[in-house]
Design brief:
With 116 residues, the protein is an all-beta fold. The protein contains no helices and eleven strands. A hairpin with a 4-residue loop joins β5 and β6. The relative contact order is 0.32. The mean pLDDT is 97.
Length: 116
C-alpha cells in the first residue's frame, strides 16, 4: 500500500501562487496515473489535474491555464503549480494514485486558502 503525503498548502492572497507537492512512498512509475483533486467546504471532491505514466495531462476547465501538474521521478513526487489563484480555489487539495488494477490511494490533503 502506497503512502501519499501532500505539502505546500497555505494562506495566499488572490493573484498569488503556490506549489503543492505529493510525495509517494514508492516509485511513481508503479501508477497508471496520479492526480490532484480538491474539496471546498460543503462541496463534493472534484478533479483539478491528472498526469498519466506516459505524460498526458488533464485539467479541470476552472484551472486550465493557471495550474500545471508535473513530476520528479527521482524524488517520487508529483507537483501542482498554482498561479493566479482565486478565492474559489480555496479547498483541501488531495493527491491520488491509480495503479494498473485501478486501485486508488489517497493522501490526507493540504489546505489552500485564497483570501485577502
Amino acid at each position: 500500500q502506497v503512502q501519499l503525503v501532500e505539502s505546500g498548502g497555505a494562506l495566499v492572497q488572490p493573484g498569488g501562487s503556490l506549489r503543492l507537492a505529493c510525495a509517494a512512498s514508492k516509485s511513481i512509475f508503479n501508477f497508471n496515473s496520479m492526480g490532484w483533486y480538491r474539496q471546498a467546504p460543503g462541496k463534493q471532491r472534484e478533479l483539478a489535474a491528472t498526469l498519466s505514466r506516459g505524460g498526458s495531462t488533464t485539467y479541470a476547465d476552472s484551472v486550465k491555464g493557471r495550474f500545471t501538474i508535473s513530476r520528479d521521478n527521482a524524488k517520487n513526487t508529483v507537483y501542482l503549480q498554482m498561479n493566479s489563484l482565486k478565492p474559489e480555489d480555496t479547498a483541501v487539495y488531495y493527491c491520488n494514485a491509480v495503479d494498473d488494477l485501478y486501485r486508488v490511494a489517497w493522501g490526507r490533503g493540504t489546505q489552500v486558502t485564497v483570501s485577502s
